[in-house]
Amino acid sequence: MKKTVIILGLIAAIIAITLSASRNSNFAIIPIVIAFISGLALVFLSKKDQSKTKPIQYIFLLVIMSLGLTIYKGVYKTIEVESTEQLDQQGERDTDKSKELLENRQIESKF
């Protein structure tokens, strides 16, 4: 039981640190939670057995690192817009079409 929780916690923590360092850092929250819960379970299991706490320390260290990276990327994420010219041109075309439609409606309503 204890070895299974250790393996689950370490795998989830490694996945969390990998995801938090990638572009998709928002998806790192789920493995962070899983690793944190397994770390807490290990704390309670190790209190009963009086066993080593090294795996618990590693899991919590990786969880803290990945959580820090995820928060950092969430706060300082810049939105990159490559070309605003296309958006401006499309906006102008839509505005011109709207004006033409309004003028046609006004002409039709006069008759």
Automatic annotation (TrEMBL):
Species: Winogradskyella psychrotolerans RS-3
Keyword list, A-Z: Membrane, Transmembrane, Transmembrane helix
Protein name: FUSC family protein
Bias-annotated ranges (Basic and acidic residues): 90-111
Membrane as UniProt keyword: yes
Region (Disordered), start-end ranges: 85-111
TM region(s), chain numbering: 30-46, 58-76
